């Protein structure tokens, strides 16, 4: 329950920061759909989003909740919270982003859609790539422990012989 509240709070913070970023700087960083620089500006924004998302996923996975699946839960939570709140942002887009042209609203929607796709994929990949701590792993095979099979069998036999 505690983890859910923290992940929801973090998701809300991410949404607030990204909305403030586009409220303050969106007029400068978002090109209009169809302009020559639209593709490159969108690409740079998505790369920035990708890098921030990797960093957030690593913080969640390694610092906040060092168990497998925590970054994925963060991604799903952030996508759910963000999509819910961005529904109202899109409805009230003239009030939220008053300096945007209609084409910049479209560009923001394109960025947002790709960003939420990344929110569902990137944390899951980070969860998959970050190894578990050795203390959390239960080895089933002697080779995984780094012991030759003979020593494992010998220690197993001696443990049974003592009983």
Q: What is the residue-mean pLDDT, rounded to a whole number?
A: 86
Main beta-sheet strand count, sense and barrel state: none
SSE class: mainly alpha
What is the general shape?
Answer: elongated
For the secondary structure, the number of strands is 0
Low-confidence stretches: none
Number of helices: 7
Strand content: under 5%
**Cα radius of gyration in angstroms:** 23 Å
Distance between the termini: 44 Å
The run of helices and strands is HHHHHHH
Estimate the helix proportion, in percent. over 70%
Structural domains: how many = 2
Describe this structure in words.
Residues 154-163 have a biased composition (Polar residues). This protein has 163 residues and is mostly helical. It has seven helices and no strands. It has helices at 2-29, 38-64, 70-91, 93-96, 102-129, 142-145, 149-162. The chain is elongated. The model has no long low-confidence stretch (mean pLDDT 86).
Nutshell version of this structure?
With 163 residues, the chain is mostly helical.
Would you spell out the secondary-structure blueprint of this structure?
Elements: H1 2-29, H2 38-64, H3 70-91, H4 93-96, H5 102-129, H6 142-145, H7 149-162
Task: Please name the defining characteristics of this protein.
2 domains; DUF5367 domain-containing protein; membrane; mainly alpha; 7 helices; 78% helix; transmembrane helix; transmembrane
